[in-house]
Design brief:
The chain is elongated, with a radius of gyration of 34 Å. It is an alpha+beta fold and 366 residues long. The relative contact order is 0.08. A 7-stranded antiparallel β-sheet has the order 4-3-9-10-11-8-5, sandwiched between helices. A two-stranded antiparallel sheet has the order 1-2. The chain has a two-stranded antiparallel ribbon with strand order 6-7. It has 2 domains: 212 residues, Elongation Factor Tu (Ef-tu), domain 3 (Beta Barrel), CATH 2.40.30; 140 residues, no CATH class.
């Protein structure tokens, strides 16, 4: 028993300890994972068929799920079993969010991720065997799982023993502390029981050496790795748009806009701008130098904006329809002209504004 006072409570690894529990030091997940994977792999575990049941059981399944308990400090596996058939693993991710809908548009405030609690369920044999001696009771797997939970696997016992529970399912290694266990016997399932338990998850490792690693997961979900010309064009569009947005931020600055309103000519515009920046009087030379710099910057801005416009034209049909203009935030109004149709005097009205017209107007280039 530790010498903690009865009023002391701590929080280690996000698990609360009271005075009758042993405090667990933070553990190195990578070291535990390496040690656990090596031990589990060396056992060559297989799901054996129950050939010696006292009564015949048909339709036996196979599942590679493995449940084991590992000491945090020693990294030693103390208990290990795969004598069950895992039928479901439920993984839920949830944000801590407060949504306010009282006035105006809804407002959402995010406060990080909620505690991760996973649910496991399956079946386990729980029946007699035809064999005796040391084999007697070998198929009471459900009862053994309940024994494991009561004495070693539930969260309180894991904390006392400085251990953590790990469920290995395919490439997923799930570390945590079981919160509850359910054992359910049914008359129509007389040789097996249903079980379920929930686990407060401390760590979840997705990678499994030889099967899947982090770089491959990134490739599987990364747009830049999609072998598709349209996807590549969209990725390139981001790079083209970035410098245009940077310049637009300057043009939207309230001080810059006020200077535009006050100026009555190009030279006065430049003079006012230079004076506002330097805080002093400006000369003709200052105005000329500033004017050249402004023209160069404007030309560079127009070139980058035109590159972006060209990329848009290559991706989507020209001219854009109303839905496309709205999606890209373009506010320019379409214009129409009378266009001959076929032979004779027949005509129809067609939109004649192009992507270039809309984008240049909205980006203040034209």
């Amino acid at each position: 028993m530790s010498n903690l006072s009865t009023s002391l409570q701590g929080s280690i690894n996000n698990v609360t300890m009271t005075e009758d529990m042993t405090m667990v030091p933070p553990y190195n997940n990578s070291e535990l994972h390496a040690a656990g994977s090596m031990v589990v792999g060396s056992h060559n575990l297989e799901k054996a068929q129950p050939y010696f049941l006292a009564n015949q059981l048909t339709g036996a399944g196979n599942s590679g799920a493995v449940l084991y308990l590992q000491h945090i400090g020693l990294r030693k596996i103390t208990h290990l079993t795969n004598k069950f058939y895992l039928q479901a693993l439920d993984i839920t991710r949830r944000e801590r969010v407060q949504i306010l809908e009282t006035f105006g548009a809804p407002v959402a405030s995010f406060f990080g991720e909620s505690a991760k609690v996973y649910n496991f369920s399956g079946v386990a044999l729980d029946a007699d065997t035809t064999r005796g001696g040391e084999r007697k009771g070998e198929y009471f797997h459900g009862t053994s799982l309940l024994y494991l939970y009561d004495n070693f696997m539930r969260g309180t016992k894991l904390i006392e023993n400085n251990s953590v529970a790990i469920m290995q399912v395919n490439n997923h290694s799930i570390y945590g502390y079981p919160l509850q266990f359910s054992y359910r016997a049914l008359s129509e399932l007389d040789k097996a029981i249903q079980f379920s338990f929930s686990m407060f998850v401390k760590d979840h490792v997705y990678a499994l050496p030889g099967a899947i690693d982090t770089p491959m997961m990134k490739k599987n979900v990364g747009l830049q790795n999609v072998n598709n010309a349209q996807a590549d064009a969209l990725e390139n569009l981001r790079d083209l748009l970035a410098p245009v947005i940077t310049t637009l931020k300057y043009r939207q600055d309230s001080r810059w806009l006020e200077i535009q309103k006050e100026a009555t000519s190009a030279s006065e515009n430049i003079a006012v701008a230079v004076e506002a920046i330097t805080g002093g009087e400006v000369t003709t030379t200052d105005v000329t130098a500033a004017g050249d710099a402004i023209k160069a910057a404007r030309s560079n801005y127009e070139a980058k904006a035109n590159d972006y416009v060209t990329a848009l034209i290559n991706i989507l049909p020209d001219p854009p329809n109303a839905a496309q203009r709205s999606y890209f935030g373009l506010t320019g109004q379409a214009t129409f002209e009378s266009v001959p149709v076929g032979t004779g005097s027949a005509t129809e009205w067609r939109q004649n504004a192009s992507w270039s017209d809309f984008v240049k107007t909205d980006l203040n280039i034209a």
